[in-house]
Structure formats: structure tokens, C-alpha cells
Write a sequence for this structure.
């Protein structure tokens, strides 16, 4: 009996490794030929490049076995700053599969082998958090991109979590999007939306509090080994919930922007972790006219 279990476990490990090898091979076969195409689009037609990256990431998610459910919708034909929680390296293809987006990332990403090339091809804005004097340059680039109608994704926690919580927002990361008065700001019509992302099932099995960190990529985890183990594990289900679009101008400063979006994002992540549905907005209706007889009858009933 023990021998049979050992053989079965060995077969399962081999099958998992073969799955990871096939997925990596398929990813490279899809990605490498398309990189020169995207490079040309980034240089000659940036908006087409955004749309092409969106198309590409939908196919990456399909290839990796990521089943995506989207709640809510992105504001159409308007610039949007998306404030998202950050759990895993998988967040990049998942969010990119939701809509044509670009990311705001820490400068270190620009030095990661291969990943940096993919990030540049998605027109990522790199932020040097160690040098405060570069904030002005980053603000100008972000505002110019928003004024051009782009959708930018900001991971406001400043790092990734284990997927069981939303870490406190760093209001300093909002300085570029909401600079002090007197500096160039985004044009009217720019919106802010939150994007909550939660991984719910692995190979069809619900992820609990103890299991969710296996999907999360955080702390000092090595990306290569983490990706290998996660690709071996099986297909994933993920839910993305988009908040209501709010004009960027309605926030007084970066601290209010950080505080309000953190409250909304934290509430949505907790609801998704608990499996709660999105709240249904209450739509006020116009009062119905009441006849004189009806009003008299209603008044008599309250006496």
C-alpha cells in the first residue's frame, strides 16, 4: 500500500512538472514573436500598443489556466487612475486582461532580467522612491499620460501582501497623481477607481487563509522558484472588483485620496475574501403623486 502511494505521488509530481514546463514553453512561444510587434506599436502608435497588450494578456491568462471574473466596469473613454491591492506577480497579466492599462512600478523592476523588457513594452512608468527630487518628473509623466486618456495602475501598498489583507497605503505614492497646489495637475475628467483582486480557488478547491499565501508573492520570495511552484499547482480562479469612478478633482489632496481609496479597497477585498456579493447601489426614485383622498386616508391611519 505504501509503495502504491509512493508511486502515485511520484506520478503526480512528474505530471505537475510537465504542466509547468508546457506552460512556460507556451508562454515563450506566444510572447517572444510578439515582442517586436509591440515594440513597433509603442514607438509609432501608443494607444494601439495598449490595446495590443490587453489582447495579449487575455491570452496569457487563458494559457495559464486563470479563470477571471470581473465585477463592475471601467469608466469608458476617460482617463482613469486605478488604485489596486497587490498580491502576486500574476496581478500584472490579470489586471492587464481586464482593460488596456499601464503600470506605475518601482525603479528596481527596470533592472529585472526579461521582466523589465515586458514592463517597458507595456509603457510602465518607473518611480525612484529613494530620490524625492524625481517625484516631479514622475508626476509630469503620469499627468501627461492621464491627460492623453491612459489608464494607469498604482499599487498603493508599495509592496505585495500574502493575499489575506490589504496593507496600509503609502500616501507618498499618491504625490505624483495629486501634486501640491501650483504644480501641473491632471485635466478635468480624470477619474479614480479602486481595483480589488482576490484569488479564490486553486485547481477548483477554495483557497483558505492558510492556502492563499501560496499564491501570493511577497517578502523575500524568489520569483523564479515561486512561479515554478505556482505553475505546477494548477489553474486559478480570481475575482476582480472595480469600484465606482470618482473624479480626481473631488479629492482635496493626496492624503485624502489615499485614505478614501484605502477604505473602499479594503472593504471590497474583505467582502471578496468572505465570498460576499458586491453591494447593490440604491437608486432613488421620484415620489409618486398622491391623490387628495389617498393623503387623507394615510393621515387618518397615522393618528
Amino acid at each position: 500500500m505504501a509503495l502504491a502511494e509512493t508511486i502515485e505521488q511520484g506520478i503526480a509530481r512528474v505530471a505537475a512538472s510537465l504542466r509547468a514546463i508546457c506552460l512556460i514553453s507556451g508562454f515563450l512561444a506566444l510572447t517572444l514573436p510578439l515582442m517586436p510587434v509591440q515594440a513597433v506599436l509603442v514607438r509609432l502608435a501608443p494607444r494601439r500598443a495598449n490595446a495590443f497588450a490587453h489582447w495579449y494578456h487575455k491570452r496569457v491568462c487563458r494559457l495559464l489556466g486563470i479563470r477571471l471574473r470581473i465585477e463592475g466596469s471601467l469608466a469608458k473613454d476617460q482617463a482613469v487612475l486605478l488604485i489596486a491591492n497587490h498580491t502576486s506577480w500574476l496581478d500584472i497579466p490579470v489586471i492587464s486582461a481586464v482593460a488596456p492599462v499601464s503600470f506605475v512600478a518601482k525603479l528596481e523592476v527596470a533592472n529585472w532580467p526579461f521582466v523589465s523588457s515586458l514592463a517597458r513594452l507595456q509603457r510602465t512608468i518607473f518611480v525612484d522612491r529613494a530620490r524625492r527630487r524625481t517625484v516631479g518628473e514622475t508626476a509630469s509623466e503620469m499627468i501627461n499620460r492621464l491627460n492623453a486618456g491612459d489608464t494607469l495602475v498604482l499599487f498603493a501598498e508599495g509592496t505585495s501582501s500574502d493575499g489575506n489583507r490589504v496593507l496600509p497605503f503609502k500616501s507618498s505614492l499618491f504625490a505624483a497623481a495629486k501634486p501640491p497646489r501650483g504644480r501641473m495637475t491632471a485635466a478635468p475628467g480624470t477619474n479614480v477607481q479602486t481595483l480589488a483582486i482576490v484569488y479564490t480557488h486553486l485547481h477548483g478547491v477554495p483557497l483558505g487563509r492558510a492556502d492563499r499565501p501560496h499564491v501570493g508573492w511577497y517578502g523575500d520570495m524568489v520569483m523564479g522558484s515561486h512561479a515554478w511552484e505556482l505553475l505546477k499547482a494548477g489553474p486559478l480562479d480570481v475575482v476582480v472588483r472595480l469600484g465606482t469612478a470618482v473624479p480626481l478633482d473631488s479629492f482635496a489632496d493626496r492624503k485624502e485620496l489615499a485614505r478614501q481609496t484605502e477604505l473602499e479597497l479594503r472593504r471590497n477585498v474583505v467582502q471578496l475574501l468572505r465570498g460576499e456579493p458586491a453591494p447593490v447601489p440604491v437608486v432613488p426614485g421620484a415620489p409618486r403623486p398622491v391623490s387628495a383622498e389617498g393623503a387623507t386616508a394615510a393621515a387618518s391611519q397615522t393618528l
Notes: The chain has a mean pLDDT of 85. The chain has one domain: 2-277. The chain is about 45% helix and 15% strand. The helical segments are 2-44, 46-64, 91-98, 115-121, 135-147, 223-233, 254-273, 292-302.
